[in-house]
Amino acid sequence: MTIHQLTIGQLATALANREISSTAATAAIFARIEAGKKINAYITLDREGALAAAAAADQRLAAGGAPPLCGVPIAIKDALCTKGLLTTSGSKMLANFVPSYDATVVEKLRAAGAVIVGKATMDEFAMGSTNENTTFAVPLNPWNLDYICGGSSGGSAAAVAADQCMAALGSDTGGSIRQPASHCGVVGFKPTYGRVSRYGLLAFASSLDQVGPLTKNVRDAALMLNVICGHDPRDSTSVRRGTPDFVVACEQGLQQGLTGLRLGLPREYFELGLDPEVQQVVAAAVERLVAGGAEICEISLPRTAYGVAAYYVIAAAEASSNLARYDGVRFGHRDLAADELEAMYSRSRSQGFGSEVKRRIIIGTYALSSGYYDAYYRKASQIRTLIIEDYRRALAQCDVIVSPVTPTLAWPLGAKGDPLSIYQTDILTIPTNLAGLPGMSLPCGFSRGGLPIGLQLQAGHFREDLLLRVAANLEKSLGLTDFKGSPKNK
Ligand code: GLN
Questions:
Q1: What pLDDT, on the 0 to 100 scale, is given for residue 484?
Q2: I need a labelling partner for 249 at 20 to 30 A (CA). Which of 198, 228, 230, 412 fits?
Q3: CA–centroid distance for 41 within its chain
Q4: Catalytic member of 21, 22, 89, 152
């Protein structure tokens, strides 16, 4: 196996045994990125910084007792602040923004010895499901370069799938880690709301945003979670709660197997007109779970169909407020030609934001405006409460909810132009965020045309351990324990 194909676990072992240096591994990753440049997984690369971090990691490794990610090349979604390194959030608005500090998760990764390779491509301000909403080059699906890689953490998923890093960080507001992970055949993990600090994450919708890893296998996701989770006094939404050892949870989960675990299949998810290939691959995965000893029950999440409508009001409302800071004065692109203040604001924002972001700001501002607040924002919040109720009832009957991640396969680039038809494809991932639950996407098979298909797992708040238990067992049964795949275009 070549170096770039290694999982975090494999590379960490090779590094600890001094079979390979972090400097060599980092150089191998940059060679791989260069060879797969056309995938456009990165907006910014930091070769110099990465090689310096790798050299430092090699010294720590030589001294012994190195931290868990010491010397491991990792990609960061461009929505997370990196000190001294361009952070654009995929927007012209921030085309020149160089943060003066690291996001907490980035700081934690660096402290754990990770080598930050660069900043992964994304939909502008994390708004999108295809990664086509960007002022930069659109990332391509490594399994078929004519197809979308999903979004909004598309570059993170593509980079992991194409072995252009060992793992990546993404963010998930309505599915942006799980959906691209599903389309690119990698593991994507959205932790419980509050589990991971969002300090230094450029905010999209603050009641929904959560940071999480995209990895080549389940154990690597656990390794990343161990590093990034935990209370942060700089993020008031981060919970004061101990972080269990997620790698141990994986290992124990494998020992326990699936016997005694109740898995719920939400009836409504399967009545939505799923792509038949998605349906088949998911059904086959469910059979394996049963063969592994799990008990299956049918559950009902009756308000699923309202999730998309509620989300696109709530997320847009929060975005319209969060994005007010990009006014050409406090932050962001400024139109230097404007000769008076108001024109400067409006021209800067007109030029800096792309069309999808403008659409959301307009919808969000409208939904919050006096006279409309009750009809839209309040109504959406009420639906949110009903969706939380649905989950409460369902999770009293089962331990883990099993479903597809998204109703369709990845589609050809440019094939969907209508925003509403794209919004609809988020129907299975959005409810997780509305309820603040942990969710993950696990590769479970392929379409006949060779596109990856993921399985979604959801559990109660802070029950990441249950997701890892199911995922580790299924991954083992599918023979994907060191899943790297072999995208045709690698
Ligand atoms: N596709 C959803 C949206 O466009 C989710 C995005 C996300 O999770 N960041 O809002």
A1: 47
A2: 198
A3: 14
A4: 152
- Say which of 77, 108, 216, 416 is annotated catalytic: 77
DSSP count for the chain of H helices, then E strands: 17, 11
Q: What are the residues whose beta carbons fall under 8 Å from the beta carbon of 392, sequence distance 6 or more?
A: none
Domain 3-256+481-489 classified CATH 3.90.1300.10? yes
Residues 6+ apart with CB under 8 A from 104: 197, 199, 200, 232, 234, 235
Residue 467 in tokens: 């997701």
Low-confidence ranges of the chain (pLDDT < 50): 482-486, 488-490
What local confidence, expressed as pLDDT, does residue 488 receive? 41
Ligand 1 center from residue 160 Cα (angstroms):
20
Instruction: Determine the distance separating the centroid of ligand 1 and the alpha carbon of 149, expressed in angstroms.
Output: 14
What is the token pair recorded at 354? 């792309």
Question: Is there a catalytic annotation at residue 370?
Answer: no
pTM above 0.90, yes or no: yes
Q: Is residue 152 annotated as a catalytic residue, yes or no?
A: yes
Place of tokens 């639906």: 383
Query: Please, which residues have CB within 8 angstroms of residue 364's CB and are 6 or more apart in sequence?
Result: 313, 315, 316, 317, 318, 319, 320, 321
The pair phi, psi for residue 262, each rounded to 5°, is: -100, 120
Type and span of the H or E element at 263: strand 262-266
Longest dimension (CA), the chain: 70
